[in-house]
Amino acid sequence: MTDAPSLDGRVARRPRGAPGDAMNTVVRALTLGQVAVVVAACVAGALLVGAVGLGGVVILPALLLARACTPEVGIVSLFVAFTPTMALRVWMLRKIVPRDRFPTRLGGVAAAGGACGASVAGGALLDVVPREALTYVIGLVALVAGGKDVADSARRLRSRAARSRAGEGETVVTVEDGGDDGDDGDAALEMDGADAVDANESESKSDEYWLEPTTREMWLLFSIGVVVGMLSVLTGTGGPISFLPIVVLWKGKVNRKVMLSMSAIQSVFLGIAAIVSTTARGKKPDPGLVLLILPCGLVGVALGVRVLKYFSREWLTLFIGTILLAVGSFTVHQATEL
Q1: SS3 state at 281
Q2: Are 236 and 56 within 8 A, CB to CB?
Q3: Distance in angstroms (rounded) separating the CA atoms of residues 236 and 78
Q4: What is the pTM of this model?
Q5: Stretch 87-100: mean pLDDT, rounded?
């Protein structure tokens, strides 16, 4: 409520949000402790978003725990605040993934599907579909995919350690040059034995980076995008927590940095579609929450993406699997509390 002078000079009370308020926002009603909870959750969630794309599932429950807003307002506000951070994430990931292997086309197909799904969900289903059931399913899928990633990466790491202990640490390979100059006739090339074995056992680059998707795979990826877009808007959990587990279970051999890049591209267009469709139905974001979340998101994502530079393929798979297990457990728990 705010004070406004009446025509007879007396001060009358008027509801917050009436014309004359500079900005109607729930942040005005938050205590310092509630603001601290929201900021801490946003920073933690944004770090996870930057590193593995999963973080919205942490932030929305914190907003509800702090009683900062209703679920609908929280979902729309998160999309408005985090869509710019996703664009920043795509730009930073392009510097990590080799340019000729960056999944622009695959990400575009997933993004098109996600935008379609988000538009349908935000425009017609947001108020009628049970959020708790969908959230529970998302959590279970994340648990299954996380368990698979942890098991696969742990097996690879144990195999590499066993080969190293077996004395395959270093080998010398001699290559005959055949040049006219006798001094240059033989050239010795040293390489790490474990890496040489890994090179022989690893999948082709085409499979690892999904360079040659079939038409069937592209349509299936589009369909997955539609489902992910709908789940993202209906549950407020964000796109990657649905997208990554499904793609991990489907195309487990694909490099995880490629998967993260695809989910980042999808999140940008999914977010735009979600904002347009939900606001068109009268679900407005809270400007104060957006201004509170946005800087935390930008800083957290920028720091989180940098972490990816220091992970090998096996350790990144293990890290993503562990996060999926943790986030999946948390999501299932939240679904039982809704």
Answers
A1: coil
A2: yes
A3: 8
A4: 0.72
A5: 89
